[in-house]
Amino acid sequence: MAYSAAQKVRFMFKHILLCTHGTEGAQKAEALVFQALSADPDLLVTVLTVLDEDWRGMTGDDWLNSSKTHTAFLDHVEEQVGAEIAEEWQRIRDSYPQAAEVKFLQRTGSIAETITGVAEELGCDLIAIGPYYQSKGFLTAHARKGLRDTMKNKTLHPLLPCPLLIAP
How far is the C-alpha of 116 from the C-alpha of 144, rounded, in Å? Predict the structure, then answer.
């Protein structure tokens, strides 16, 4: 008997850390994980969105005004990004009724270290992420939604506390 990817996940894992940031690839991971959750309501799912810590290090000539102006602007940007993340989470809740039962977390930090740290902290036995998508350039007619943060496999893989599933 052949099993679907969602059925295989169901048999093997108890707590999945779904890492998403709203991009096309991340949405593929969402679909796979929520398909598995609909097949096994006892499966625990935590949705994690990581805001890369590097953005706070932005500098430029416009910051010469004052550190207070710089801090106020960074706080404003963080608030805006938080609102975008909340909007993404609402999209997930609207798309998948089972999302009402999952935990949503937002963390700021190094992407790979934050993902693996949260997986360890929560005792997850699977991390699910979306596939890499090549950007079509900074300015395109059809800009993709999402934080567009990426990480390198050579950074993530040595830190993994459990298996990694990259959605097809």
Answer: 26
What does residue 10 show for φ and ψ, rounded to 5 degrees? -60, -40
Burial class, 19, CB count within 10 angstroms (exposed 0-12 / middle 13-18 / buried 19+): buried
User: How crowded is residue 130: how many other Cβ atoms within 10 Å of its Cβ?
Assistant: 24
Q: What DSSP string runs through 152-168?
A: -HHHHGGG-SS-EEE--
For the chain, domains (ranges, CATH) are: 14-135+149-166 (3.40.50.620)
Average pLDDT per consecutive 10 residues, the chain (168 residues; last block may be shorter) = 59 89 91 92 93 68 65 79 91 95 93 95 96 61 49 82 92
Per-residue CA distances from 130 to 31, 139, 141, 150, 162 (Å): 10, 22, 23, 11, 16
Q: What predicted TM-score, i.e. pTM, was given to this entire model? A: 0.79
